[in-house]
Automatic annotation (TrEMBL):
Compartment(s): Cytoplasm
Quaternary state and interactors: Homodimer.
Family: Belongs to the Fur family.
Descriptive protein name: Transcriptional repressor
InterPro entries associated with the record: FUR (IPR002481), Fur_C (IPR043135), WH-like_DNA-bd_sf (IPR036388), WH_DNA-bd_sf (IPR036390)
SUPFAM superfamilies: Winged helix' DNA-binding domain (SSF46785)
A Pfam family recorded for this sequence: FUR
Keywords: Cytoplasm, DNA-binding, Metal-binding, Repressor, Transcription, Transcription regulation, Zinc
Length: 120
């Protein structure tokens, strides 16, 4: 399944990946795709996020903690570091007595190309 994710651009839903695999001749079932993507996300081999519409999306992940800028139009995804976010999240957790805090930050907007096409 990791190889299938490596072949996609940006994030993809389990259903879209399943359709692409079937178009390529794979007999894999949709439930198996969901299970495999969930396992990849749990092990850190895939990024997982929810689209603004609430759909779970996946993509092959680079290593290390990171965040994303995601284009709402074309799906272009850029991995970013965010030291300020890391510091803020740690402070907020500590101020409220939380330990072992984790966070996910995904910023949705329009990439430069889509912004130009959409008129700003």
């Amino acid at each position: 399944m990791r190889e299938a994710l490596d072949g996609t651009d940006g994030f993809i839903s389990a259903q879209a990946l399943h359709s692409a695999l079937h178009a390529g001749g794979s007999p894999i079932g949709l439930a198996t795709v969901y299970r495999a993507l969930g396992d990849l996300a749990a092990s850190g081999d895939a990024d997982s996020l929810q689209s603004p519409e609430g759909e779970s999306l996946y993509r092959a992940c680079s290593t290390g903690h990171h965040h994303h800028l995601i284009c709402r139009s074309c799906g272009l995804t850029v991995e970013i570091g965010a030291d300020e976010v890391e510091e803020w999240a740690g402070r907020q957790a500590a101020e409220h007595g939380f330990t072992r805090a984790a966070h996910v930050v995904d910023v949705f907007g329009f990439c430069a190309e889509c912004s130009a096409r959409l008129g700003g």
